[in-house]
Amino acid sequence: MELTWHGHSTWHVTVGETELLIDPFFDNPKTDLEPSDIDTPDYVLLTHGHADHIAHAGAFSDATLVATPELVSYCEAEFGFADAVGGMGMNLGGTVECGDAYVTMTRADHTNGIMTENETSGGMPAGFVISDTKPTQGSDDEATTFYNAGDTSLMTEMREVIGPYLEPDAATVPIGDHFTMGPMQAAIAVDWLDVDHVFPQHYDTFPPIEQDPEEFASEVRGIGSDTDVHTLEADEPFTLE
């Protein structure tokens, strides 16, 4: 599995021959890329409907959309998406097969109003667990699994469900504070998830979420976790094995 962070919460994930793009938003200071620099992926995954997560979704409307039914409906009307996974989107707790990947939608504790003239709801905000094998109750040491927590606060579902049952090897968690978890609570999330690798996201994009990722790494060490903290350079691929 190959992971590429494009700044903020935008990720390009490759599983086998399948390309997935999460929360396309290229107006952030970490990347020099424009949406036109990115080949259309097979799937676009949207965690929620805030502008800093769907701003450039329309540039990839030929892809299959993975989002809640409410957000699918909005993106069909606003951006011209014609194809959604399952024909109608998916919802929390569900797992769908997306080419060579299995995508499970998880909870995220956040808000999800879409700021239009007549504000509309995007349904529940979400995170995604992406794996190269279908999740089962049996532990699969051969699976490679990546958890994108989306925009969220600390939630016990990370400790009670996502960590022990979906078993991510790696995770990306927001550290920006103000709108999401900050470094201290994000470090608790890392400990609960018990992942081998973690990547900070959703920071240094706007003044309210300016953060030093080294503070996050220090908090992870301070809680006693041996998780490897990777502060990625934008647009550089990371191979997860």
Automatic annotation (TrEMBL):
User: In terms of domain of life, where is this protein from?
Assistant: Archaea
InterPro entries (UniProt xref): Metallo-B-lactamas, RibonucZ/Hydroxyglut_hydro, UPF0173, UPF0173_UPF0282_UlaG_hydrolase
Keywords from the named record: Hydrolase
State a single Pfam family of this protein: Lactamase_B_2
- Keyword Hydrolase: yes or no? yes
Q: Which residues form a coiled coil?
A: none
Q: Does the keyword Hydrolase apply?
A: yes
A GO molecular function assigned to this protein is:
hydrolase activity
**Range of residues in the leader sequence:** none
Q: Give the SUPFAM superfamilies listed for this entry.
A: Metallo-hydrolase/oxidoreductase
Which stretches make up the Metallo-beta-lactamase domain? 7-202
- NCBIfam families the record matches: PRK00685.1
Entries under PANTHER family matching the protein: UPF0173 METAL-DEPENDENT HYDROLASE MJ1163, UPF0173 METAL-DEPENDENT HYDROLASE MJ1163-RELATED
The family note in this entry says:
Belongs to the UPF0173 family.
Q: What is this protein called?
A: UPF0173 metal-dependent hydrolase C486_01449
Give the organism, scientific name: Natrinema gari JCM 14663
